[in-house]
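Quick illustration, no need to memorize.
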Amino acid sequence: MHKSFRAPTLNERYRAFRVGSIVTMANAALEPEELVTVEGGMLLQAGPASLRATVFDGSLDHAITNVTLTTTPDLITRRRENAGGVRARGLEAEGEYRLRAGISVLGSLAWTRSRFAETPGLTGNRVPQVPTWQGTGSVRWTAPSNIVVAGQLRVYGDQYEDDRNTLTLNGTALTDVTVMGSPMRRASWFAAVENLFDIDYDTGRTPLRTIGTPRTVRVGIRVTM
């Protein structure tokens, strides 16, 4: 078990901002957040397989969040407020299986139940921008001459943009491919393609839909001094 706290930032106390049709006001009277978390984990290994898992249960008092005050067709007004609390519990797991020399399959999964508690008008609502589940799966091959080829699938479920749970960000699945090599001791090269299939996916609602980065190609060289 551990305890921690976070003081409000200057932005949260004094800086208002607008994104699209959403205006968020600052609040100079914000109080620090206080977190109490209990967690436990385990590690299992059997031959070429390994599994790591962690369960957690956290209680966040005076959680700082953007609370919706009014909504009209032209403008949504929010203000930073201390919610009564947030209760989050869940499971994180990751594993690896070595099929044979140089080839591994890896995966991870996170399940989180995060809800407002003891907050008038919000109790039981999901915390914004926290998907209930998300995970990755990948295959990694280390070829001769220290060349590494990896393919990764990233998936996550639906989440909400707002505290009232009215603006939905749909879940999606994205594919990435990376190739890396180390021809010299202090130098390496890489080439990567993110969002290989150029999928449109939600990253925000203002309330207009905002989409994420399209297919992106990166090529570079790393030098260690």
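The first strand starts at residue 2 and ends at 6.
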